[in-house]
Amino acid sequence: MAEAEEKETRSYEESTDESEEDESEEEPKLKYERLSNGVTEILQKDAASCMTVHEKFLALGTHYGKVYLLDVQGNITQKFDVSPVKINQISLDESGEHMGVCSEDGKVQVFGLYSAEEFHETFDCPIKIVAVHPHFVRSHFKQFVTGGKKLLLYERGWMNRWKPSVLHEGEGNIRNVKWRGHLIAWANNMGVKILDMISKQRITNVPRDDISLRPDMYPCSLCWKDNLTLIIGWGNSVKICSVKERHASEMRDLPNRYVEIVFQFETEFHISGLAPLCDQLVVLSYVKEISEKTEVECCARPRLDIVQPLPESCEEISSDALTVRGFQENECRDYHLEHLEGESLFYIISPRDVVVAKERDQDDHIDWLLEKKKYEEALMAAEISQKTIKKHKILDIGLAYINHLVEKGEYDLAARKCQKILGKNTDLWEFEVYKFKEIEQLKAISRYLPRRDPVLKPLIYEMVLHEFLESDYEGFATLIKEWPGDLYNNTIIVQAVMDHLKKDPQNRTLLRTLAELYTYDQRYGRALEIYLTLRHKDVFQLIHKHNLFSSIRDKIVLLMDFDAEKAVDMLLDNEDKISIDRVVEELENRPELQHVYLHKLFKRDHHKGQRYHEKQISLYAEYDRPNLLPFLRDSTHCPLEKALEICQQRNFVEETVYLLSRMGNSRSALKMIMEDLHNVDKAIEFAKEQDDGELWEDLILYSIDKPPFITGLLNNIGTHVDPILLIHRIKEGMEIPNLRDSLVKILQDYNLQILLREGCKKILVADSLSLLRKMHRTQMKGVLVDEENICESCLSPILPSDASKSFNVVVFHCRHMFHKECFPVSNTISPVQFCNICSAKHRGPGSTILEMKK
User: Fold this and answer.
1) Taking the model in full, what pTM does it have?
2) Which end of the chain is more exposed for a tag (fewer CB within 10 A), N or C?
3) Where is the RING-type domain (predicted)?
4) 252 vs 199, 249, 255, 324, CA distance in Å?
């Protein structure tokens, strides 16, 4: 039975899918399945005429007068033979314990499903409708209504007798009735009425819009959305009515309630049933269309639409064409729509079929996305709803997504998605890698392979590396650089690289990669050799990182040829590992490199390489003359005679001048400046530095017959030598360039010196006067003498113990004190006396006497 039901459901879903346009991208709101099991058996021999639903069971009426109670799966739980003819309507109270049934032969039965309570009545006309009070189970609500030509209300009264009363008649057959709370709504040939059972007053009449339609062929559909909202569908018109309380001031003779139509709109097709879905409506429509073959109007598949009501129109949310059995022979009156409140379940009833429509859940949404090949959206939806979905697994969707991308040829995207989808599952990772290998796309997945947590088998990484080694050396080098060395068997990869180097020994990419592999394998010596051969920038980093200084003792020349500056910095930073002597020895045959090293050593510390300063003189002279003079000035260890010899041999005038002056031969140095350089400014500067009168005399004697030199001396000599000495020696009649300007400058310099002296004198006088006044104020102040002071001569207290005795005390401004009798007598005739203690140190103000007598 279960297999039959599954097959039935699948076949219905397939047929419903066929009814939709293949290119439609809009997801349906509902899903459908046939109610099978017992229903299938019933409808094979009979036809459904009506149905009502309860949360506990379903009640199905047939054309052969049978009423079946079914469970929600469609299995028959109970059967009632009510009449030999068609069952028109079945009504249940809210408890599901009482049922009302009416049939085409005029029979009406109201009975308890779980009690002996029962009512039977046969009328002389077909009874189309029956409705029991929603609270029929309660004793004071034992009421039901029936409808044929009249609308009758039956109430149980005294002695359990049923008393009928006419609620309405005279407007044709009663076609439909719905009872909700204290309100009864019914439809006849003229329109829809609503009765308030509390006041027993009819509160509205909603007339039928399209009177051209036969009410028996296009019956009215009624549905209560809640206790105060009635939905009416008739023909192709829909009205939503709201029952409202009338204000007391408006009542007069009117009912205390009234009805307001809040929404009204028309549909494309005729309405067979209505049901609420939140604030939307579910509409079952009867459709006719023109046959393409016969060009005759025929019955089409019914439609189930979800619409959003608007004040004067509606917005279609979804629309599904339903392939029900025998739809070609059905009329509008043959379809019914029942719904189960609170569960969004809708039952579409036709003579040969019962279809259940449900709101689609997240599993259905994912199914639709997968069907439309929207795998990424399906994966996202599954991740968001992973706690509620039951049918799908995130991993399965993800794997399907990867396969889909591979089939489309989007290998890079598929590989990238592996990171998120496969996570830490090593088995799935390895399976996907082999799948990418089969399609020759290992390169695509190489960038996304996990490198830490998890780590795959070494074989996987080796397989990828071999793929790159065969076709892409640069890609292979990139992977070796990015991947940790413990992911694969290093020996195997090294051997593979060596095999390729046999074919191409000078391939720099392979050599560089081999050096990195040697580094991972801690064979740093071999790596260093390759880096030096390639002159690779990482060689210094490798040496520092792995402390390879012992390996580079004999490779210093190679390092400096590659990058002298970096090499020298490294060697100087690590003198404890490679000594200065060893470096100088290694560079003996490369003096230019030896100079670079020693020069930088000297810049760091003038004393460390002192034993090589003599050698450096020749090196500077040969390779770096601009730095020779600074070296000679800063070095205290280079032999001056050797330096002078080298500079004289190479005719380095400036350096020779410096050395001569340093050796004390200033006159020869000055002569060299004048004769070789012919630079009076430099000669004057040199004389200023030496500050030697004889040197100035030599300079004047040498310049006296050279007018340009005289001009230079006149302009610069004024502050060091009396210009008169030079002016007196100038021969009469000698033309001296710019003589007037030079004499003016001398006078200006002289005036400036006078002004400076006068200014200094004024400052000194002002300061002396200020200090004198300060000293005078200080000396005029009193000096405290108490018991704690002592005589600096006898070292006894300065004040006598008996204060009544007279005493004399000598107090100096320096705070030294003496008894008058203890103070030594001065040998000088001067009346001013000085403190002996301070006079022994220095004579100055403050040491004069201040005599105190009593």
Assistant:
1) 0.58
2) C
3) 791-839
4) 14, 7, 8, 53
